Amino acid sequence: MQQSYTGMLNNNKPAFIFDMDGVLTDNMRFHADSWVELFKDFGLQGLDAERYLVETAGMKGHDVLRYFLDPNISEAEAARLTELKDFLYRVKSRDLIKPMPGLRDFLDAADVHEIRLAIGTGAGPRNIDYVLDLLNLTDTFQAIVNPFHVLQGKPHPDIFLRAAELLDTDPSACIVFEDALPGVEAARRAGMKCVAVTTTNSAEAFSDFDHIVKIIDDFTELSVDALCRNLYTKQPVTLL
After folding, report:
1. pTM given for the model
2. Would residue 4 count as lying in a domain?
3. Phi, psi torsion values for 96, nearest 5 degrees
4. ∠ Cα 70 76 77 (to 5°)
5. What's the Cα-to-Cα distance from 155 to each of 34, 235, 238, rounded to whole Å?
6. What are the residue ranges of helices labelled H in the chain?
7. Quick one: 81 and 108 in the same domain?
């Protein structure tokens, strides 16, 4: 008989909060290529997909534009260019979006254990609907938080803290699943443990973070039961 962890963690309900791009699906390269394509029109030198992925993957579009293009870009212009980039991304990726290996079984196991599920992503609403529809996960998550719901995007903790609030659980009872360094840092600032996914960064890139409990290539390497037991420890314990 499967064990339910609901209400067993100091009366807090355990929750899993997933970044979307690079975690639910291995699609960050499509985003990176689309940004590089867009920035070519502005004569930006020295930007390739690898630099984007290392320095700004996981940030909301407005922050990417401020970082690479113009720190004083207007909200209207940033919104226009972000939507143009997102159109390029959807054109490039439409037939290629697939769930991460092991994802569906992992989500099913979380449901059996009565784990609350949320998405905390830097993607906008249109891209969220696009990906979840292609992955057939539209009705899977109890809460979805995007940058328009908070004041500051990753690496600030706002997105993950808002997700925990919507799930009615304490940040200490949450595990975040992230592929990007700004997102991993956001989880740390939120007081949440983290599973790092190596779609965007190498395992070595996560070595400086002490709140990471496991580094994975995909969800076939995870046990819901082991992750929940890890929440009971006062300090993160790497699940090797």
Report:
1. 0.85
2. no
3. -120, -5
4. 40
5. 22, 22, 22
6. 28-40, 49-55, 61-68, 75-93, 103-112, 125-135, 158-166, 181-189, 224-230
7. no
Between CA 24 and CA 228 the distance in angstroms is 20
Instruction: Tell me how far apart the alpha carbons of residues 91 and 21 are, in angstroms, rounded to a whole number.
Output: 16
Residue 9 is assigned to a structural domain of this protein = no
Q: Which amino acid is at 190?
A: A
Same domain, 115 and 34: no
* C-alpha distances in Å from residue 71, one per residue of 66, 77, 220, 229: 4, 12, 41, 44
110 residue type, one letter: A
| Helix, strand, or coil (residue 25) | strand
Residues 204 and 174 in one domain: yes
- Reading the block at residue 174, the tokens are 């949450």
Q: With b meaning 16 or more CB within 10 Å and e meaning fewer, what string describes 167-195?
A: bebbbbbbbbbbbbbbbbbbbbbbebbbb
Q: What is the pLDDT along the chain (240 residues), one digit of tens a residue?
A: 344 444 444 447 899 999 999 999 999 899 999 999 999 888 887 788 888 888 888 788 889 999 998 999 999 999 999 999 999 999 989 889 999 999 999 999 999 999 999 999 999 899 999 999 999 999 999 999 998 899 999 999 999 999 999 999 999 999 999 999 999 999 999 999 999 999 999 999 999 999 999 999 999 999 999 898 877 665 444 444
Kindly state whether residue 3 falls inside one of the protein's structural domains: no
